[in-house]
C-alpha cells in the first residue's frame, strides 16, 4: 500500500483535475484537510471516482481493483454509501434503486457544505485557513464566460413593468415553482461556523437558509441527517425571511439549480472573499444593476447599511452606486423610502447553462482548453475516469 502522504496526494491531484479544482498549498493545508475528511481507504476509493460523470458502483469497483484496492464489490459499495453519508461524494438514483456516484468536490454544494451540523472546531479552523490560502481563488475563477456565482434580485425590487416579463431563471419563486421537488432546508454552514467562532451574523438570527430544490440534492441532504423536507410554501417562507434580513439570493448558475443560498456579506465565505476584490460584478452572472435618481434621493443612508457587497456609498450629499461592485441583488431597492434607488436590467442578458452538468462542463472546457476537452469527452464515452 502507498504511504500516508502518497494516498492523500493522489486524491488531491485527482480532485484538482475537476471543474473547480482543489489546489495544493506549500503549507500542506490541502493534505491536512483531506486527512480530516477521508480515511486512507476512502481517499483511495475517492481517487477512483469520476469528478464529472456519475457512475454505477460496479464500474467504480473494477477501477478500484485495477488500482490495487483489494476489496470486494460489496465492500466497495459499502464504502461508497458510507462516503455519501459523510458528504464526501455525490450519489444519484437512476431508475429503480440504481445508484450512481461521483466526487463532490470542495466547492459550494460540495464536501464542505455537507459538513453542516457536524463541523468540529478543528475541521473548521483547517478549512478556513485553506480557503484563505488557496481555495477561494479556485472557487471564484471558474469559467470566464460562465461564472460559478449567480445572483437573482429579490422579487419586490423588480420594476413594475417587468414583473410579468422577468425570465424564469431570474425569478427565485419561479425557480422553486418549476423545480421537480422534493424540497429541503438545512442550516447555513457559513453562519454556523461564524457562531462557533463567537461572531454571530449581524443581520439575522435565522440559520435555516440553505435550500435544496432538486431531487437528488435534497434527498442526499436529508439522508445525511443535515436537512429536513419542507413544502413549497415553507420554501417561500424561508425566502421571505431572507428578504427581510437583506440576504443575497444565490441559486446555482443553471436553468435547473439544485440549491439556493441566502447569503450575507459578513458570514458567507464566498461573499466575504468577493468583497475584497475591486470588481465583484465581474465575478457574478447577474442580469441587473442598481441606478439612483439623485433628484429623489433623501440621503437617508439606508441603502448603504443594507448593501452586503459595499457597492453603495454617500457622496456629495446623495447616495451613489459603484457599478463594478453591484451584483444586482436588489436589497437596497426595497428599503429606499423615496424610490430613488431602482433596479435596471442589463442590455445583454446572460442565460444560465441548462443544468449543473452543463455548467461544470463549460467551466472544465475553459480550464483545460477545447482540444483537451475532446479527450475528456472521449474518456467519458469509454467509461474511463475523468
Describe it for me?
- By secondary structure, this protein is of the alpha+beta class.
- 38% of the residues lie in helices and 15% in strands.
- The model has no long low-confidence stretch (mean pLDDT 89).
List the helices and strands and how they pair.
Elements (H helix, E strand, L loop, with lengths): L3 H12 L13 H9 L2 H7 L8 E2 H10 L6 H13 L3 E5 L5 E5 L17 H21 L7 E2 L21 H7 L4 E5 L1 H8 L11 E5 L2 H9 L3 E4 L1 H14 L2 E4 L7 E5 L5 H6 L9 E2 L2 E5 L9 H5 L5 E4 L2 E4 L19 E5 L10 H13 L1 H12 L5
Parallel strand pairs: 4-10
Antiparallel strand pairs: 1-3, 2-3, 5-6, 5-7, 6-9, 8-9, 11-14, 12-13
Helix pairs in contact: 1-2, 1-3, 2-6, 4-5, 13-14
Please provide a brief summary of the model.
The protein is α+β, with helices and mostly antiparallel strands and 386 residues long. 38% of the residues lie in helices and 15% in strands. α2 crosses α6.
Amino acid at each position: 500500500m502507498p504511504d500516508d502522504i502518497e494516498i492523500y496526494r493522489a486524491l488531491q491531484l485527482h480532485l484538482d483535475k475537476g471543474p473547480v479544482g482543489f489546489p495544493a498549498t506549500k503549507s500542506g493545508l490541502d493534505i491536512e484537510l483531506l486527512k480530516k475528511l477521508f480515511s486512507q481507504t476512502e481517499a483511495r476509493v475517492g481517487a477512483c471516482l469520476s469528478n464529472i460523470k456519475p457512475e454505477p458502483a460496479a464500474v467504480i469497483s473494477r477501477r478500484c481493483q485495477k488500482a490495487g484496492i483489494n476489496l470486494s464489490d460489496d465492500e466497495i459499495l459499502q464504502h461508497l454509501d458510507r462516503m455519501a453519508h459523510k458528504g464526501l461524494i455525490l450519489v444519484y438514483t437512476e431508475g429503480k434503486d440504481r445508484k450512481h456516484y461521483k466526487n463532490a468536490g470542495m466547492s459550494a454544494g460540495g464536501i464542505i457544505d455537507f459538513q453542516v451540523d457536524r463541523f468540529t472546531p478543528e475541521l473548521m479552523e483547517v478549512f478556513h485557513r485553506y480557503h484563505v490560502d488557496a481555495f477561494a481563488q479556485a472557487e471564484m475563477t471558474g469559467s470566464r464566460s460562465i461564472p460559478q456565482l449567480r445572483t437573482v434580485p429579490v422579487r419586490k425590487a423588480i420594476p413594475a413593468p417587468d414583473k410579468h416579463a422577468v425570465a424564469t431563471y431570474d425569478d427565485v419563486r419561479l425557480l422553486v415553482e418549476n423545480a421537480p421537488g422534493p424540497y429541503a432546508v438545512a442550516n447555513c454552514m457559513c453562519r454556523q461556523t461564524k457562531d462557533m467562532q463567537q461572531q454571530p451574523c449581524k443581520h439575522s438570527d435565522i440559520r435555516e437558509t440553505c435550500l435544496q430544490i432538486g431531487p437528488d440534492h435534497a434527498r442526499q441532504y436529508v439522508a445525511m441527517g443535515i436537512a429536513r423536507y419542507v413544502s413549497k410554501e415553507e420554501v417561500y417562507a424561508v425566502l421571505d425571511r431572507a428578504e427581510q434580513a437583506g440576504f443575497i439570493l444565490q441559486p446555482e448558475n443553471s436553468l435547473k439549480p439544485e440549491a439556493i443560498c441566502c447569503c450575507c456579506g459578513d458570514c458567507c465565505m464566498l461573499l466575504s472573499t468577493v468583497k475584497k476584490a475591486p470588481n465583484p460584478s465581474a465575478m457574478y452572472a447577474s442580469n441587473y444593476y442598481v441606478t439612483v435618481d439623485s433628484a429623489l434621493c433623501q440621503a437617508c443612508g439606508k441603502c448603504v447599511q443594507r448593501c452586503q457587497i459595499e457597492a453603495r456609498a454617500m457622496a456629495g450629499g446623495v447616495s451613489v452606486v459603484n457599478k463594478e461592485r453591484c451584483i444586482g441583488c436588489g436589497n437596497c431597492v426595497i428599503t429606499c423610502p423615496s424610490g430613488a434607488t431602482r433596479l435596471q436590467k442589463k442590455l445583454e442578458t446572460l442565460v444560465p447553462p441548462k443544468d449543473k452538468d452543463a455548467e461544470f462542463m463549460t467551466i472544465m472546457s475553459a480550464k483545460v482548453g477545447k482540444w483537451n476537452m475532446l479527450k475528456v469527452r472521449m474518456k467519458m464515452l469509454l467509461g474511463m475516469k475523468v
